[in-house]
Design goal:
Radius of gyration: 18 Å
Strand order of the largest sheet: 1-3-2
Order of helices and strands: HHEHHEEHH
Number of domains: 2
Number of strands: 3
Number of helices: 6
CATH superfamily of the largest domain: Winged helix-like DNA-binding domain superfamily/Winged helix DNA-binding domain
């Protein structure tokens, strides 16, 4: 037997677990948790802000989790939510302190991405990501076929 399932599931789980550990270790000094890191990172990447719905999609999180985390981030002064367009359409943006924190978060993410992909050239890395995207899409298709 080729043990594809064991190898694949172990590697994906291990990568995810290590990413979560790195987030917790690196972001604890900033007082941030994993979901907050995702939100700050995506808002930093979208300086003009994004809607609540867009943020949920970017972070791949449900509305409840994003809403709770945004409430914390607003309270901590990292994020502002512009009023007036409707709950899910209001632009969410980083404050000045949020932007500075976003720079730190993005820098740490970039450093660990570089470290994690040592020994992989650009072509191989692109092939890896492309292959993972195909696997992800195929699994999503099969889930839809058999019914969520």
């Amino acid at each position: 037997m080729d043990k594809r399932y064991e190898r694949f599931s172990y590697l994906i789980s291990n990568i995810n677990r290590n990413l979560q550990k790195l987030k917790n270790i690196e972001m604890s000094e900033l007082g941030l948790k994993g979901k907050a890191v995702q939100i700050i990172y995506h808002l930093y990447q979208n300086e003009n802000g994004v809607s609540f719905s867009q943020l949920c999609m970017l972070c791949d999180e449900d509305k409840g989790a994003v809403s709770r985390t945004l409430k914390e981030l607003v309270g901590q002064g990292y994020v502002t939510i512009q009023e007036g367009k409707g709950k899910y359409k209001n632009p969410v943006k980083l404050t000045e302190i949020g932007h500075k924190t976003g720079q730190i978060v993005a820098s740490k993410i970039e450093r660990y991405l570089d470290f994690g992909s040592q020994g992989i050239n650009d072509k191989s890395r692109e092939e890896l990501y492309s292959s993972l995207e195909i696997v992800s899409n195929n699994l999503q298709k099969v889930i839809k076929e058999i019914g969520e």
